[in-house]
Design goal:
By secondary structure, the chain is α+β, with helices and mostly antiparallel strands. About 50% of the residues lie in helices and about 15% in strands. The chain is built from twelve helices and seven strands. α7 (about 175-180) packs across α10.
Length: about 280
C-alpha cells in the first residue's frame, strides 16, 4: 500500500527535529522578506502580519513548555471556561495575534529564530515520549507530538504567509509525512467533534503514500487513532499523498481538487464514508 508497517520512534523524532531545524530558517527568511504585513493571507480575516504574530505566539508557547525558567502567565491569557477543544483553540488562536503589536511585528523573524533555536537546544537528547504539559490544550502530550505540531504550524502557516505575500513556499512529502505521523494521532483524538460522532461507528484505514498508516476508529462519540495497527476490517480506506492530505486536513486545499489531481482516493467496503472523516475531526 506504500505505507510503512513499523517505525522507530526515536529515529522518526530525530527526523522531525531535523525537518523543523531546516524549516525554521525558511520561515525566518519569509518573515523578514515581507514588504506588506497588512496584505491578506491564506487565512480568512487574518493579514500576513497576523499569521506571523500567531506563529511567533506558537513558538513562544511551545518554547515555554520546555523552559520552566521562562514561565508564561497562562491564567491571564487562556480563554475562560472549559468548553469543547476546538472552541478553546479557536479562541486561543484569536487571542494569539494580539501578543505582538505593530512595532514588534517588524522583528518577528528574529523572535522566531531565537525561540526555535532555544526549543531545539533544550529538547536535544530528550526521549520522544517525554511528557510536556500544554496549558492551552489542558493536558500533557509527548515531546514527539509537540515537535510535530511545531513543524506543522511552521509549514502550514508559512504557506498562508507566502500565499498572501506572493512569495515561494514549498511543503515536501517527507515533511508532511512526519507531521501526519508525529502529531495527527494525538490531535485527531483531541479534535473529535463528540456531538457529531455520537452514534457513529466507522473504521477508517488512512494510508499515506510513503508515510505512516493510521487506523482511525470512531465509535459512539469516541475515537482511537493507532499507528501501524494489526490487521482488521475497515469500512473505508483513504489513500493520499502526504502533502495533499496535510493541506486538505487543514482546509488549505479543497478535497475535490486533491481528488481531481489524483492525490487522494477512497476505497474499501464503503468509500463514500471518506467525506465524514473531515466532518468528525474538527479544525480551528
Amino acid at each position: 500500500m506504500g505505507a510503512d508497517r513499523s517505525f522507530d520512534p526515536v529515529a522518526e523524532h530525530n527526523k522531525t527535529r531535523a525537518a523543523l531545524g531546516a524549516a525554521i530558517p525558511r520561515l525566518v527568511r519569509l518573515l523578514r522578506d515581507l514588504s506588506d504585513r497588512d496584505a491578506p493571507s491564506g487565512v480568512p480575516v487574518w493579514t500576513v502580519g497576523d499569521v506571523g504574530a500567531h506563529l511567533a505566539a506558537v513558538y513562544l508557547g511551545f518554547c515555554s513548555t520546555v523552559t520552566p525558567d521562562e514561565p508564561v502567565d497562562w491564567d491571564s491569557i487562556l480563554p475562560p471556561g472549559d468548553g469543547p477543544f476546538i472552541e478553546r483553540i479557536t479562541a486561543m488562536n484569536a487571542t494569539s495575534i494580539s501578543f505582538f503589536g505593530s512595532d514588534d511585528r517588524a522583528r518577528l523573524g528574529d523572535f522566531v529564530a531565537e525561540r526555535g533555536e532555544t526549543f531545539l537546544r533544550v529538547t536535544e537528547g530528550l526521549a520522544p515520549d517525554t511528557a510536556v504539559a500544554v496549558p492551552w490544550y489542558g493536558k500533557e502530550i509527548t515531546l514527539a507530538t509537540v515537535t510535530g505540531l511545531m513543524l506543522s504550524e511552521t509549514l502550514v502557516h508559512g504557506l498562508d504567509i507566502a500565499r498572501g505575500a506572493r512569495l515561494p513556499w514549498g511543503i515536501g512529502p517527507d515533511e508532511a509525512s512526519l507531521v501526519v505521523g508525529q502529531s495527527m494521532p494525538t490531535m485527531m483524538t483531541l479534535a473529535l467533534d463528540k456531538e457529531k460522532a455520537r452514534g457513529v461507528s466507522i473504521a477508517f484505514d488512512l494510508v499515506v503514500k510513503g508515510g505512516p498508516r493510521l487506523a482511525i476508529v470512531v465509535d459512539d462519540g469516541a475515537v482511537t487513532v493507532t499507528r501501524d495497527a494489526p490487521p482488521r476490517a475497515y469500512d473505508c480506506r483513504i489513500t493520499a499523498k502526504p502533502t495533499a492530505f496535510l493541506l486538505v486536513s487543514f482546509r488549505r486545499t479543497p478535497i475535490w481538487k486533491a481528488i481531481a489531481r489524483g492525490q487522494m482516493r477512497a476505497g474499501g467496503r464503503k468509500p463514500w464514508l471518506a467525506m465524514q472523516l473531515g466532518e468528525l475531526i474538527g479544525t480551528p
